[in-house]
Every structure is written in structure tokens, then in C-alpha cells.
Amino acid sequence: MPVERPLPEPRGTVVLIPAGALVLGGDLGGTSTRIAIADLEGNVVGRGAAAGGNPTSHPASAAANFGQAIQQALAGLDPAHPVDPAMVKTAVIGVAGGSALSRPEVRAQFDAAWSGAGLVCEPQYIGDLEVAFASGTPAADGAVLIAGTGSNAGLVRDHRLVRTADGHGWLLGDDGSGFWLGREAMRSVLRALDLGEPIGPLGEAVVRAVLPNRDETAVAEREGYDRLRDDLIRTVNSRPPVLLAELARTVVTACDAGDETAYALVKRAAELLTETVGRLRTTSDNGPLVLAGSVAGESSPVGRLIRQSIRDHFDGEVLTARDGVGGATWLALGALDPGLASGENHTRLVTPPA
Question: Where is the ATPase BadF/BadG/BcrA/BcrD type domain positioned along the sequence (predicted)?
Fold first, then answer.
């Protein structure tokens, strides 16, 4: 028996949502793939997780991880009661690097993982900015800033992304991101070595992170400085550039320990991220701003400075993104029926499980 919940569709069609209908939310990032399935009251009935699902870098493995996480979620929280794929009526999936899904050969791999799990509804793929915003607030309008390995910002109207700033990638932008912090930390070390100056606590931490097996006694000699510079340059250039983002943790730790060079980098990162937000917002905007990503987190010194800077420059609440897959699942409820996108369901879905 269908629930008497009419769902308006395009061209005036009215569809009744069947009893027992479910929705699916997904959060596909560079390091993890997460899927949640929920009922119409916002209760999660299935969860799945796998390795990275970003389709840009490794589409085949990303699609495989996507399929694995779906299968895990369909198994249900209670093994005695698996989820019926036919009851999943809407799906919203946030994807980092989602533009790769516009390539037919990549989309085909994701479609195969989807249909192979027995799912029949059409998945809606959206960007990670929309998912991050929805995870932080049930508001329809506002802005969102993600600062992790990369950085980008978005303006949201009626739960949809209408404009973006930065997100240009490590070569062209991502100002203030983890990659930016790592690159600038390395540049500060190389600059000191060029000048024959002490590299300081941050520089020593960078050297230990990049060259963990190096004999540090060589650093004390002038020729040791030359060798150190060459070793750093050779090692960094032999690895994928994005791995410089791993040095962001080194910068944050040094900043918290009182290193002046690290603090200067953290302060500049916060300024750049505030400028990115400023490309989208004006001083009269009063919608919430949701901050997401490890660099913008509340425990990060960059995150703390961003929050203060944002409050100094813009009106509106500054909120922290919560469970991304929960935000996507809440959006899926709203796609099925706007009335289901309630504040209560939002709280239930974005609060991580104990």
C-alpha cells in the first residue's frame, strides 16, 4: 500500500511514495567512499565504506570501491534484514573530482557498479561543495568553503551550487590549502638554504618528514647544506606533487609549538582562504558559511584564524561541516519529497554514529 504522500514531479505528474521507500546518500572522496541508506524518518538502515572513490585519478578502482561500499550498505545494519535495492527510490551522491563522470568511459564504470548492485533508480551525482554545505546546515542558502588537500568555495541557493571560487587544482590555485601550506613550507626551507641561514624548527621538521633516513649531522656543514638542498629538491620532484600536502600537518604542529615561520604561513593561508570566500560573498550576505576539510577544522590553527577573519568581514553564522554522507542522504530525502528534508531528519543524519 502506498503512503498518501503525493510527490509533485515535472509537468504536473503526481507520484505516490510507496511504504518502505528508502533513499541513498553517498560521499566519494579521494581517501574514502561512504554510502548510507535511510528510511523516510531519517533512520539509517545500511552503511558501507571502502577506499577512495574520486573518479579523476583512478576511475577503475574508484568505481570498484563505489560498488563495494554500495554492496556493504545493502547488506544492512542487521545482517538478518538486508536492504531491498528496489526500495531505494532516490540517490544523491557527492563526488570529489566529479567532472570526470562526464567522460562516457568513466561514467560507464560507475553505472556498472550501480546496476550490478541491483539498484534501479537514477543516481544524482553532485559536487562535494553541495554535500559539505548540506552536512553543516539545513538552510537553503549560504556559502561553503572546503580547505583540505585542495581548497574551493561555493555559493548555494535553494540547496544548489550556483557559483564557485578557486578549486583550480594545485598547479593553478587551491590557495591556502594543505598543498599550499606544504609547498610554502618547503620553499621556506630552500630559501634559507640558498642564503646559508639556519632552517629553524619548522625547516628541521620538514627535512625529517621528507628525508626520514638522512644523517642530520651533515646539515651543520656548508657542503652539507648544499647536499641537503639537492636531496630535498630531488626527493620532492620524484613524488606526485600533491604529496606536499602531507607537510601541512608539519606546519600546523610547528605553529602550535610557537614557530614563527609556521605561524606566518598559517596566517597567510587563513588570509587567502578568506579572500576566496570574499569572491562569492558580500558584507550584506547573512546566510551561514559552512567550513569543511582538515585545514579549516576547528582544531586547526588555520581554521581558528579563518573563523575569526570571517566573523570580522562577513555577517551570518560560521558553521562546521559534519557527516558528509549524512548530508547527501538528507538531500536525497529532499529530492524524494521536500517535506522530508526537515531539521529533525537533518540532525539525525549528520550526527555521526557512536
Answer: 24-312
Range of the domain at 73: 2-137+322-350
Query: Would you say residue 176 lies in a domain?
Result: no
DSSP track, 164-218:
EEE---TTT--TTSHHHHHHHHHHHHHHHHHHT---HHHHHHHHHHH-TT--GGG
Contact call for residues 143 and 280 (beta carbons, < 8 A) = yes
Residue 1, pLDDT above cutoff 90: no
**How many angstroms separate the first and last alpha carbons of the chain?**
34
**Longest CA pairwise span in the chain (Å):** 82
**Could you count the other beta carbons within 10 Å of the beta carbon of residue 37?**
27
The HSE-up count of residue 53 (CA atoms within 13 Å, CB side) is 32
Which residues, 6+ apart, have CB-to-CB distance to 283 below 8 Å? 313, 314, 315
60 found inside a domain: yes
- Asked whether residue 225 is assigned to any structural domain, the reply reads no
Per-residue pLDDT tens digits for 88-117:
999 999 987 667 888 899 999 999 999 999
Block residue for cell numbers 554545505: 133
Q: Which of 351, 347, 330, 350 is nearest to 40 (CA)?
A: 330
Q: 114 with 53: CB under 8 angstroms?
A: no
Question: Is 291 inside any structural domain?
Answer: no
- CATH classification of the domain holding 9: 3.30.420.40
Q: Mapping DSSP to helix (H, G, I), strand (E, B) and coil, where does residue 342 land? A: coil
Q: How many domains does the chain have?
A: 1
Whether residue 159 contacts residue 130, with contact meaning beta carbons closer than 8 Å, is answered with: yes
Q: Is 316 left (phi over 0), alpha (psi -120 to 50) or beta?
A: left
Inter-axis angle of helices 260-278 and 178-195, nearest 10? 140
CB 98 within 8 A of CB 126: yes
Residues in a beta bridge with 289:
143, 318
pLDDT value, residue 11: 42
pTM for the structure as a whole: 0.85
> Cα Rg for the chain, rounded, in angstroms?
23
Amino acid at 202: L
The grid coordinates of residue 42 equal: 531519517
- All cell numbers assigned to 351: 550526527
